Write the structure tokens for this entry.
Amino acid sequence: MEVKLLPFTYNVPFFSIFLALLSAVSVPFLKNGEQALRMIRVVQAVVAALSAALLAHLWSGDSFTFMMGHFPAPWGNELRAGPLEALLALAFSLVMFLSLTGGAEDIRRDIREERQGQYCLLMQLLYAALLAMVYTNDLFTAYVFVEIAAVTACIAVVAKESGRSVVAAIRYLVFSCLGSGLILLGISMLYSVTGHLLMEDLGRAVAQLAQTGRYAIPLTASALLMTLGLAIKSAQFPFHAWLPDAHASATTASSAILSGLVLKGYIVLIIKLILRVFGSSVLIEMYLHDLLFLLGVAGMLFASVAALRQEEVKRMIAYSSSAQISYIFLALGLGSRAGTAAACFQLLTHAFTKPMIFVGAGALIRAGEGGHYWSDLRGMAWRAPVAGIGFTVGGLSLCGLPLLAGFSSKYSLAVAALAGEWQTMPTLFSLAVSSVLNAMYYIPAILVIWGRRDGERGTFLSAKEASAHRWATLCFVAFNLVLGVGVGPILALIHTGLALF
């Protein structure tokens, strides 16, 4: 009997998660936090390279499933990879690596030396959980890693060990537990009526039940529970109350990773639920798409208005994150393939843009000798010019400046909305108003950091900028430009990946 050997790239999803977990448990054997930080970044760079190789292998539109262990479902577990999963794994790896690199100085300042190794361990567990959410083909396994991500993210907030960070972490934990409970209830209800946990099997069972009309109420309830649970965890309005304090009180690397990656991991699961488990047609019959759309519109406007009122730097950026997440929910609420593709592109845009803003803000706060308010940061971009450039590019991108990622994301969303029914005008109106609101708080912030202090000349602090933070910020800027200029090929790749879902 001839045995067909599979390409090595088929092992990339498993090895990516395994390397992240293995490096996490290896941290206690290292001497200090510096070695731990260096090791986990090396592993993230290796996984990024593996993800790039997997993306190149699947670029033409191939996909596969990888059975974990020797037992098939329902006892075993499966990983699934296609072009979209490979692209997301590559993006998550790069953002994780650059966020830890750009925030390394704040890790040394904000976290006690004996705790830095534990912090690296938690970050790597969080990284493994995010990769697992991208690749998993099993709903319950996804829930397990959702919990790992939630616990590690809460501890990442409190790692700074200030009174404010403790309160923020407790609030984050309360909201996270509420979301987890809703997700688990939804999974349990869905399993009770289908008997499956693998997403493909669930999709077939749900389609059959929807066609026959059986268990209509349990199916609707399970979809609503899981969607609301993941919306709470992703800080979608009106469930975003935990977000500003959590991001504002955490160290810079934690803020960048929470905003850029953790929120996106839960949205990836929402996309999988829509496309693989319930299907767009079933969700449209449940009016769940309308709920997502309305939440998105409300979040874009209310979170932006809240950002306008903030005097503290990181709180304004955190409210901006909630507004940008709402773009994704609005795009998913369009209920079309073009809308889902626009949501995926916005996911990538925000993943690379918001960590760049947080990393830039962290360096500006250091240059301002710890001042966390805009009045303390006047002229600080002249002391930390690369950080100022990163913050400026990120802010202008989210305002929708052409050639940057934010403009391409808004454009793709507007194009997707043109094919909608009643959603077209509300979408275009919300995009226009949100862009104006974004400009109303980002442009004044940019003018403040590049302004001059009264009676004081700006000073270039080259010693502060000579660290790895400089090239991490420049890499973020480069990726933002790539997303802005290369929107066509990237959207085509996303469409190819979605077709295989």
The chain has a mean pLDDT of 84.
